[in-house]
Q: What sequence folds into this?
């Protein structure tokens, strides 16, 4: 999940589950993908089965090696994650994957759903970490945005003892190995990935949507949804311009801001949305909008079967939510144990069958298909993307300094805040 | 009287004299902890320089004030405009209701008030979110009107200035109706009768007697609603569109997303200062003195 | 009263009911121009409701109210040429004394220059010049009362309604204001309709008064007439104290009737007083009309005499208040002025009580005895 939960336009109307809760009882996501109306047919290519990238654990520096070796195993783990982001039994009380972990290792997991947004969560933990105290969590989950970079720059994270993560190196998808924002997976391993593309309502647009160009179509004036998240907003404009956001320059940012400004001035943009963009799409306020793949599944499950999610011809943004160990963690060995446990077909498959974003463990596909027997999820290219799809994904720009981040922010914030 | 006795008496006397000050200690402690300290922290942060990585350091840097005003003048003006307009509309809408309940509510005054306040027991955010559903382009309201060709197909209300001000008004109703009701309820009905007796028509009675006597309610409601609405950020975020961003949204953006704490603090200080000026001017024009006299 | 005479206020069969409760019951009344007229009664008797209907604050359930010959029964207050001085004064707290007084004139669109003159004039009349710019909260009760009066009088209404206007004042100030009000009324010559529960106040101030009970008028007349010749037992009891007796007419001689009391004692009662009351009479005499005499003292012609013993003797400064019990156990209250040098009768002493025959009055009894 990218930074949808910290809209810079204001209050966090973030939690889709919360909004969903207003309208209907909670539902399991099993079978939601069955609709097959995702506009993905063209992309259903041969599977991308083997993950072995040949990556190897990187040794720790002497200081951290010493630190890790001093740690004593514990029987506890405090895991802070985003809401509705793990498998859960129908009564909502148990997490089978965590129970399996406890059975296998004897480690009790305290699972907290306390992270509502990258920026607010960072704002909450940074002062504590800065003062050298513990935030009480052993694992936290953050998206690859500026706040993650900042955690690393501020030296708030514990480097992973990769020797203890053999499953990661054996089973992880190449898309999550040594990402640009965390070279060599020094601090993080991915929990889930996701795509930012376009969603639309064919009844209202009256035609098929294939490109980011369509977000600038004056025919849709007043009914185009853009994201208030400046990273997403700027990246979409750059994809339209044919620029790879990950390799973009401040000059590119200005060009992108200019076409966004133009789009706004022409009255094409309805609103810059936080996660409520999906409600706007459901309600018919927007006809076409920037969107996260997972939300459109949710909309389908709610009965908005007309809505479509597409990977535009210019490509999509790929983002990653990552597990990491904050400094001051009381149970670092338990945290490593869990990360390693997660990177197996069984655990990742169990969780993926519920969560339905992009699974970082390709071998979970067969597990879901053969053991869980949920072909809908297993065969979905949005959960297990094809090679060709991966070829169309783009990464966010990785900020090298606060000044860069600030430059990006000040380039794009006037668009949203005018 | 022995020396020790007189000393004890003196101490007792001292204790008696100090008692009021001692009793006020909790209030002072509270004010210091929750008002003076945060205020000082905010003001000092507004003068700081640095960045979140290296940290922000206090440095008598007044430049942020200039930057804040030049960069966000539109949003500041907009916030005060929205605040004033929404407060005025709220007053005009709630006054007749409060008036009716106070004068004609009879035995059911409490019930009427309760019914009006009932929606306000629901969380502010949920209430505001509900408007997204009610006013949806293809929702049951506009969707139906569009099908009946009463509204043009492309008509919408969400994501507009009208929606933001409407939301502000809606969310302010309780905060205005209560002080108005209290003020109107307090008016001596015999005075109202006296106005009628002295040839004042119902309209004249309202303008010359009831309205001036309800001034404390108008004033109190104005303060509550105006101050809240100028600094609001929820309505603009939920119901607004391009060009409706308010200063509250900007402060939040600068704090959480841009991590520009000095700017967030500077904007908060400016907002607070401008609000104080507004209240002062308002009190001067409408007369806080007069209001105190009614109370007497 | 001849129809040709201009009537300021006329109530004709006015009834006011609240559901099953009748506050004012088929009331008819005429108040003459320039008169100081009081409605007297205890609380709940309907006097304030009557005033409210004249003022226009309440509508009669049935019946008509005429002001100067015009039916105003259903006109709102602000359309009636009537002003009210309220019990609570009901001054406008947000306006100064001068603004309060000018309020009615402004509503009537009187010219500004004229308003100033009339306000100054009326404030002089009520002795409040110099207080123009004060707010009511800064005035004493008596001053507020006078502002309320000025505020009403300045409009020169045809009729001024006063609802217990002195009720909130202390006794001394009240006595003073009674005289003040009387003076002002005679100066301005406006009809005053005055509501009070204080019988003394009503007697002191009124040209005529009406005693009300249970929404009906018991008696109307000048104070002396109502006092000396109460029409009903209720009036006799409400307006001062009375000693009541039952008697039977047994003979007639000239202007007098010979009436035998229950114990056989015979007294004389003026024929005029008993007119229309039949043979069995409810008789009364006021305590101050009775003299207490030693047994030995002869009593002159034209006096009614009873004997008894002193059972209570209260010294009140201005006199003595005795209770005399006669042989059949009737108690008589007697007030004797403090005029004699000699000391009065002692407790338990046998005495004669005597009053002039014409001081005996006959009332409609409240119940048969």
A:
């Amino acid at each position: 999940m990218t930074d949808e939960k910290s809209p810079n336009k204001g209050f966090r109307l973030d939690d889709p589950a919360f909004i969903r809760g207003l309208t209907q009882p909670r539902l399991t996501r099993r079978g939601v993908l069955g609709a097959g109306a995702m506009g993905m047919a063209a992309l259903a290519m041969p599977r991308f089965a083997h993950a072995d990238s040949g990556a190897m654990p990187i040794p720790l520096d002497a200081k951290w090696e010493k630190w890790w070796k001093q740690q004593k195993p514990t029987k506890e783990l405090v895991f802070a994650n985003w809401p509705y982001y793990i498998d859960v039994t129908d009564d909502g009380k148990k997490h089978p994957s965590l129970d399996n972990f406890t059975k296998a290792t004897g480690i009790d997991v305290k699972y907290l759903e306390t992270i509502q947004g990258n920026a607010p969560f960072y704002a909450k933990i940074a002062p504590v970490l800065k003062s050298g105290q513990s935030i009480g969590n052993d694992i936290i989950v953050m998206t690859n945005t500026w706040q993650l970079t900042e955690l690393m720059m501020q030296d708030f994270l514990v480097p992973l003892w990769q020797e203890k993560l053999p499953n990661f190196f054996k089973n992880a998808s190449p898309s999550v190995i040594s990402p640009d924002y965390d070279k060599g997976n020094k601090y993080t391993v991915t929990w889930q990935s996701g795509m930012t593309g376009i969603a639309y309502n064919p009844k209202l647009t009256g035609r098929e949507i294939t490109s980011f160009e369509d977000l600038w179509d004056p025919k849709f004036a007043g009914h185009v949804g853009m994201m208030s998240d400046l990273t997403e907003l700027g990246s979409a404009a750059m994809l339209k311009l044919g620029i790879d956001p990950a390799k973009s320059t401040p000059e590119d940012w200005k060009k992108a801001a200019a076409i966004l400004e133009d789009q706004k001035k022409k009255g094409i943009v309805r609103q810059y949305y936080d996660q409520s963009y999906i409600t706007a799409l459901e309600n018919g306020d927007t006809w076409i909008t920037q969107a996260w793949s997972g939300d459109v599944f949710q909309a389908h499950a709610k009965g908005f079967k007309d809505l479509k999610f597409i990977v535009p011809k210019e490509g999509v943004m790929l983002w990653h939510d990552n597990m990491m160990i904050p400094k001051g963690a009381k149970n670092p060995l338990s945290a490593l144990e869990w990360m390693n446990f997660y990177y197996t077909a069984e655990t990742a498959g169990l969780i993926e069958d519920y969560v339905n974003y992009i699974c970082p463990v390709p071998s979970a596909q067969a597990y879901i298909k053969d053991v869980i027997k949920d072909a809908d999820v297993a065969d979905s290219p949005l959960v297990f993307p094809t090679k060709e799809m991966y070829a169309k994904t783009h990464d966010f720009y990785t900020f090298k300094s606060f000044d860069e981040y600030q430059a990006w922010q000040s380039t794009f914030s006037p668009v949203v805040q005018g | 009287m022995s020396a020790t006795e007189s000393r004890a008496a003196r101490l007792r006397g001292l204790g008696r004299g100090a008692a009021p000050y001692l009793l006020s200690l909790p209030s002072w402690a509270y004010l210091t902890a929750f008002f003076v300290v945060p205020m000082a922290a905010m003001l000092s942060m507004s003068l700081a320089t640095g960045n979140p990585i290296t940290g922000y350091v206090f440095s008598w840097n007044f430049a942020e004030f200039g930057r804040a005003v030049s960069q966000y003048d539109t949003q500041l003006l907009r916030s005060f405009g929205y605040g004033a307009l929404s407060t005025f509309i709220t007053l005009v809408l709630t006054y007749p209701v409060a008036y009716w309940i106070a004068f004609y509510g009879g035995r059911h005054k409490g019930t009427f008030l309760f019914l009006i306040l009932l929606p306000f027991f629901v969380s502010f955010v949920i209430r505001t979110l509900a408007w997204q559903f009610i006013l949806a382009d293809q929702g049951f309201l506009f969707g139906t009107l569009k099908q009946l060709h009463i509204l043009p197909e492309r008509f919408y209300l969400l994501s507009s200035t009208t929606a933001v001000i409407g939301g502000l008004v809606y969310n302010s109703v309780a905060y205005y109706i209560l002080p108005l009701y209290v003020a109107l309820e307090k008016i001596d009905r015999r005075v109202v009768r006296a106005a009628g007796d002295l040839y004042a028509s119902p309209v004249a009675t309202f303008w010359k007697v009831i309205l001036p006597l309800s001034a404390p309610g108008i004033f109190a409601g104005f303060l509550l609603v105006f101050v809240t609405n100028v600094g609001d950020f929820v309505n603009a975020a939920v119901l607004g569109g391009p060009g409706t961003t308010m200063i509250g949204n900007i402060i939040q953006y600068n704090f959480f997303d841009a991590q520009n704490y000095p700017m967030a603090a500077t904007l908060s200080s400016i907002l607070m200062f401008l609000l104080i000026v507004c209240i002062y001017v308002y009190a001067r024009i409408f007369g806080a003195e007069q209001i105190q006299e009614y109370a007497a | 009263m001849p129809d040709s005479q201009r009537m300021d206020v006329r109530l004709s069969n006015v009834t006011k009911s609240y559901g099953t409760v009748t506050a004012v019951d088929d009331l008819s009344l005429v108040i003459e121009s320039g008169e100081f007229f009081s409605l007297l009664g205890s609380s709940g008797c309907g006097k304030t409701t009557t005033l409210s209907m004249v003022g226009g604050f309440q509508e009669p359930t049935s019946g008509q109210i005429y002001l100067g010959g015009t039916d105003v029964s259903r006109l709102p207050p602000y359309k009636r040429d009537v002003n009210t001085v309220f019990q609570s004064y009901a001054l406008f707290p947000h306006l100064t004394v001068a603004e309060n007084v000018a309020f009615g004139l402004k509503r009537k669109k009187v010219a500004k220059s004229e308003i100033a003159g009339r306000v100054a004039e009326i404030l002089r009349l009520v002795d409040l010049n110099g207080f123009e710019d004060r707010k009511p909260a800064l005035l004493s009760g008596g001053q507020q009362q006078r502002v309320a009066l000025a505020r009403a009088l300045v409009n020169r209404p045809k009729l001024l309604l006063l609802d217990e206007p002195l009720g909130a004042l202390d006794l001394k100030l009240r006595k003073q204001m009674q005289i003040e009000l009387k003076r002002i009324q005679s100066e301005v010559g406006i009809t005053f309709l005055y509501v009070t529960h204080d019988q003394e106040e009503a007697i002191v101030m009124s040209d005529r008064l009406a005693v009300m009970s249970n929404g009906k008028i018991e008696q109307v007349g000048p104070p002396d007439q109502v006092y000396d010749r109460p029409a009903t037992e209720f009036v006799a009891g409400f307006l001062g104290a009375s000693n009541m007796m039952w008697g039977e007419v047994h003979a007639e001689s000239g202007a007098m009737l010979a009436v035998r009391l229950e114990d056989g004692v015979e007294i004389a009662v003026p024929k005029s007083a008993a007119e229309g009351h039949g043979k069995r009479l409810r008789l009364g005499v006021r305590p101050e009309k009775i003299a207490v005499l030693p047994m030995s003292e002869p009593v002159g012609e034209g006096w009614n005499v009873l004997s008894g013993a002193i059972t209570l003797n209260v010294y009140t400064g201005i006199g003595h208040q005795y209770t005399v019990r006669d042989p059949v156990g009737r108690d008589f209250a007697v007030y004797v002025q403090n005029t004699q040098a000699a000391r009065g009768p002692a407790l338990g002493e046998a005495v004669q009580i005597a009053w002039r025959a014409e001081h005996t009055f006959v009332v409609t009894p409240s119940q048969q005895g």
